[in-house]
Design a protein that fits this description.
By secondary structure, the chain is mainly alpha-helical. The protein is 73% helix and 0% strand. Helix 3 packs across helix 6 (115-128).
Length: 136
């Protein structure tokens, strides 16, 4: 029992040292996550870039992201209408929905992609929806 506890302690100590290392090591440890994609010489548009990244995921994850994207796009349209009408209560409700949808999308990004790929997806989404840049 003491031996197992000692091994667990040493393992925790070694893991904590790894997280204090530079980013390159952390990317090495993120095995199984999708890294930054090569552009192939031409820069794809934001929608194409997102589609290419999402195409690398399992079908259930793709479906969940597609549903979240649709909800995000629909509520973004609602936000524009409510904002133009100066309906503060509606704007706040829609903003809360948008924040929730974006948080769910980011959680999937965190689970599936490296930080470099997540940054590229964040930039692509911010290019599609200006409001996304204010969510961080």
């Amino acid at each position: 029992m003491i031996y197992r506890n000692l091994l667990a302690f040493l393992w925790l100590l070694s893991v904590s040292n790894l997280f204090a290392a530079e980013e390159e090591v952390l990317l090495f440890l993120s095995d199984g996550r999708i890294d930054l994609m090569a552009s192939g010489g031409n820069e794809p548009g934001a929608e194409d870039l997102i589609r290419r990244y999402y195409g690398l995921l399992a079908a259930p994850t793709q479906e969940r992201l597609a549903a979240l994207q649709m909800q995000l796009a629909n509520r973004m349209e609602d936000y524009e209408v409510a904002f133009a009408a100066a309906d503060t209560a509606e704007v706040n409700e829609i903003y809360a929905d948008l924040t929730r949808f974006w948080a769910e999308i980011q959680l999937i990004h965190y689970q599936e992609y490296t930080s470099a790929a997540m940054d590229e997806l964040q930039t692509a989404y911010a290019g599609l929806y200006e409001l996304i840049a204010g969510f961080d």
